[in-house]
Design goal:
Blueprint lengths: L2 E5 L4 H12 L3 E6 L13 E5 L5 H8 L4 E4 L9 H19 L3 E5 L6 E3 L2 E2 L11 H15 L7 E5 L3 E3 L9 E2 L13 E3 H14 L5 E6 L1
Parallel strand pairs: 1-2, 1-4, 2-3, 4-5, 5-8, 8-12, 9-11
Antiparallel strand pairs: 6-7, 10-12
Helix pairs in contact: 1-5, 2-3, 3-4
């Protein structure tokens, strides 16, 4: 059994990750901004705590002694994504490096997966202009990880383009590299529950150290 700290535990991906980790018998710390809104997360093997992933002192106090730390946090209303993502990752890197907080696993964005050598999804002409800023902020956080001290074992699991919120847990997925994964029909899909399987697998095994990689069906 490993102590796994999940930031952003109240979101769809975060909730699925908490459930998957607890289901495997891990000691899970679910970190949310407002515990009153997410009281249903508490249960067997799950402790609910309030925390701000961009607050370095709070993060350091939460991750010490963890076997793995998962960052599924997203900006809230009024947050600037350009600041939020880099501040969150910076706080997590410093805390893990300073406290021995275990493996750091982030949740990526399909927009920065490659569709051709040196060409990301977000660089293609058809990518919606209104999402470029958000995608760029996510990509900037990846750069913060790349600059992390060598002692920080990190990886980023990047979901498929399409999330199925109602999809069942099959326990299967494909893991690729930094390229967008598609099926025979050209679609890129995964359910939240199977994405959580991939994230907890990475938290347990660390099979993709210091890189990001795509997962899909």
């Amino acid at each position: 059994m490993t102590r796994i700290v999940v930031f952003g535990a109240g979101g769809r991906a975060g909730r699925a990750i908490v459930a998957e980790a607890a289901g495997r018998g891990h000691d899970v710390v679910a970190v949310v901004r407002d515990t009153a809104r997410h009281a249903d997360l508490t249960g067997r093997g799950v402790g609910l705590v309030a925390g701000d992933v961009t607050d370095r002192s709070q993060v350091a106090g939460l991750v010490g002694g963890a076997g793995a730390v998962v960052n599924a946090a997203a900006p809230g209303l009024g947050d600037d994504p350009g600041r939020f993502f880099t501040a969150a990752v910076g706080a997590l890197v410093d805390a893990v490096a300073g406290t021995g907080g275990g493996r750091l696993v982030g949740i990526g964005l399909s927009a920065y997966l490659d569709v051709a050598p040196g060409v990301r999804v977000m660089d293609t002409p058809g990518f919606p202009a209104q999402f470029r800023g958000f995608a760029g902020a996510h990509a900037a956080a990846l750069d913060v990880l790349r600059a992390a001290p060598a002692t920080v074992e990190w990886s980023v699991v990047v979901p498929a383009t399409e999330f199925d919120p109602q999809g069942e847990r099959t326990g299967t997925y494909r893991a690729g590299d930094t390229r967008l994964l598609t099926d025979a029909d050209g679609a890129s899909r995964i359910s939240y529950r199977d994405f959580a399987v991939a994230v907890v697998d990475e938290a347990e095994q660390g099979a993709h150290p210091r890189t990001h990689f795509a997962v899909a069906y």
